[in-house]
């Protein structure tokens, strides 16, 4: 399944409170259908309700996430086994988890979560990381793929946050790990996708805001004048 996404784009279809797409999973299904029509090779979606709805009409691999508070009360990507289990039940084909040191300092706990998803749910795990060290750690702890999702969003990477995708980080991770590396975060242009996959060696690329957040796309144009 991970192989089927090679050299493809994955569209992140997520609805947040305060945006017009929040509250009706059929809206994210329409987004995912649009992504399929446009040639996407996968979908990334948040929460069991959206995933269940997307799966009714969209025959693409779905990377499931569940952004929920962890035991500290901080919202992170798929904090625990239960939050992963409901995604599997809804039809997710791969589960993404926050694998940053900021959110999961405890290595044994992260390793246990990865193993539980792989063995009990029989699904592969995507590790969302923010730097090279976290990518190397995630591979060592058994993750099946690694994604640059959190680059620029942890306290220790926010100062180096790139305006567009962090291509340099993708290259460095590709050199250091053997599992597929997925570029994610701030992809805005078709040429960004080419750079990540053809030049930097990414397996595929996840695009969210620049496809599924029309208010942000509108603002980019509006700001131009
Ligand atoms: C940091 C974090 O929580 N990222 C989230 C992860 O699922 C989403 O809010 C992003 O939209 C997604 O990663 C895609 O990135 P972009 O929207 O930049 O194309």
From TrEMBL:
UniProt KW ATP-binding keyword: no
Family matches, as InterPro entries: Aldolase_TIM, NanE, RibuloseP-bd_barrel
Protein name, UniProt field: N-acylglucosamine-6-phosphate 2-epimerase
Lineage of the organism: Bacteria, Bacillati, Bacillota, Bacilli, Bacillales
Matches recorded under SUPFAM superfamilies: Ribulose-phoshate binding barrel
Enzyme Commission designation: 5.1.3.9
GO molecular function: N-acylglucosamine-6-phosphate 2-epimerase activity
Function: Converts N-acetylmannosamine-6-phosphate (ManNAc-6-P) to N-acetylglucosamine-6-phosphate (GlcNAc-6-P).
Gene Ontology annotations of biological process type: N-acetylmannosamine catabolic process; N-acetylneuraminate catabolic process
């Amino acid at each position: 399944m991970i192989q089927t996404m090679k050299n493809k784009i994955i569209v992140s279809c997520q609805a947040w409170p305060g945006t017009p797409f929040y509250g009706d999973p059929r809206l994210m299904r329409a987004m995912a259908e649009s992504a399929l029509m446009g040639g996407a090779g996968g979908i990334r979606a948040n929460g069991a309700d959206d995933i269940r709805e997307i799966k009714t009409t969209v025959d693409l691999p779905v990377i499931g996430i569940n952004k929920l508070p962890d035991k500290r009360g901080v919202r992170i990507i798929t904090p625990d086994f239960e939050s992963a289990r409901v995604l599997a039940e809804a039809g997710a084909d791969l589960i993404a988890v926050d694998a940053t040191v900021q959110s999961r300092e405890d290595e044994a706990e992260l390793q246990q979560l990865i193993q539980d998803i792989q063995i009990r749910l029989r699904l592969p795990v995507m590790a969302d990381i923010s730097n090279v060290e976290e990518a190397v750690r995630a591979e060592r702890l058994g993750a099946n793929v690694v994604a640059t999702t959190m680059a620029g969003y942890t306290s220790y990477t926010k100062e180096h946050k790139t305006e567009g995708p962090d291509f340099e980080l993708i290259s460095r991770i590709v050199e250091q790990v053997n599992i597929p590396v997925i570029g994610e975060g701030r992809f805005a242009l078709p040429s960004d996708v080419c750079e990540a996959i053809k030049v930097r060696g990414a397996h595929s690329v996840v695009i969210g805001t620049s496809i599924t957040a029309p208010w942000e796309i509108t603002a980019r144009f509006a700001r131009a004048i």
